[in-house]
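Standup notes
- DV: blocked on the single-chain target, sequence here:
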Amino acid sequence: RELIALLWDIGLEVGHSIRTVAECISESTDITVQTNLLEARLLCGQPALFEQLCKSVRQHLVAKEFFMAKLHEQEQRHARFDDADFNLEPNLKESPGGLRDLQIVTWISRAAGLGTRWTELAQAGLITLSEAHQIACHDALLQTLRIRLHYLARRREDRLLFDFQTTLAEQLGITDSANRRASEHLMQRYYRTRRAVRLFNTILLQHLHDYLFRDTLPQHALNERFRMVGTRLEMRDEHLFEHRPEAIFELFLIMQQRLELTDLSANTLRALWRARLKIDATFRRDPQNQAHFMEILRQPHGVIHALRRMNQFGILGSYIPAFGRIVGQMQHDLFHVYTVDEHILMVVRNLRRFALEKHAHELPLCNKLMGEFARPEVLYIAGLFHDIAKGRGGDHARLGMKDARKFCTLHQLSHDDSQLVVWLVEQHLTLSSTAQKQDLADPEVIAEFAENIKNDRYLVALYLLTVADVKGTSPKVWNAWKGKLMEDLFYLTRRYMKEGAIDNHLTEIREQAAATLNLYAISATSYQMLWAQLDDSYFMDHEAQEIAWHSRLLYFRVNDPAPIVKARLSRAGSGLQVLVYCRDQRWLFARICDFFARLSFTIVEAKIHTTQHGYALNSFQVMEVNRSDMDYRDLMNYIEFELTEKIRLAEPINPVS
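- DV (later): unblocked, structure below
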């Protein structure tokens, strides 16, 4: 007890218990206790008693049940730690690809009687000595990082927090390069290690499963190179990829075309990992391999699964060397929470998702456009190359154009498709930047944007790639308001491209608003007094439905001396739209912003206008930073009352604490 107290006092988290051998066995029905007993070591005491404990543990341990329990435990752990926050500041111990993924293999291996050292697993035939050495190196790096992290934090700290990444890089002798910080190099090394650990974890667990369960599964020959064993795909010759490298891509095609296949056999997984070394310049220039790769992109099923598996095994980075350079590369900015390669594959995944009817409700316009888009593989290629030059310095879009053009030429895409891919890579930031940073109510903005777009196919492609790109940056970056801005820009540009300059825009907006008001039985004579006070900029700045909403609320209160505040749910799909109408006053805009700031609302859009007779007509699109528990109806009532009072009293503004 004194020893345990001492360990606690110095900050070590040590669990302890005092039990007889029989009590230990009784408690070992719990998988955590069973794992601890399996790892038991004699520090001091009676060797005979310790041997009795170990013997009892082995006798009561059922290796198959232990395997399934640990596998379930790993699945739960991965679900807990595989999210955006842990991607930026990963947990060295618990995150997928962390130390736990290596430990679980040694625990199951010990339970199966195959040993605990990587060399022992090699002797058992589960891995080669070379693979055992690779795993040991990855294990050593993770252990080193974790130990140094504890020293830096002066406590138990398993997360690679931003505060420690630079210092850890310095301690490991990693320095800044011309275009990237030392911490980014460190994290790329970590992410590549994590990927390798996850891969070896998958391969070894499948080997251990086959060793423990020894199932006799039905076999079915698919061709002279591959067969189906149960629901797994297996090579008929374990040296297939060495003799016939072209079979590498054939494997992925078979997995896409035979939907009954769920996985690869353990030996095939290992062979695929080694196959990356067979992909060289000769392989890339082979027309058969090029045709197979393009066929993978054209398949109706499994495109993203194939690309992700290629990336997992290093195949994609070997086939497209520029992609290999960005594997594991983190972007240290406010938006990206994925490594560059993960982000790129997330973009392709989003493009594929747009085409699926079961997801049509998420983004109906994207679903419609994607369903009509001929040769969607053009978009997937643009997605693969849009950020491929990140980290090289300079304009990554222009640098990526060269890689994209080289790929298109090598794979014999048509001139039109090649031009589209290269243009998309160059312009992939343009639509998002225009939609979010410029005034879409200004016809000149639309005209300037449209002049850069060749035709409707180019516009559709850029819109789809942009939405997929923004949604693939981080789960927290996309919101309905950004979606609405991009959709508005798409429709305005398409209209401009069909009709030319929008000279009659104001007339059409007025007519559309008038038609809506007519549905509410509000005659033109009723709202003309309000409209007479509004200049052209107001009608250019608002959509017809917004003008109709304002007019319905204000046509009978044009000269009302009391402030008018009204709120409604935003048509964008999230947030609120708030109208403020009152006599103009000093600090009005600041007073309104102060009100929303104190409610923890973000103002994503503000349209500020002053009427001919000195009234302010302001419209705000606001979104909650942290969703409150208040019902939206109650929230709107609160805003309408409290903001009205704040404007009426015109009190001095105090700093937000």
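- Follow-up: The mean pLDDT is 92.
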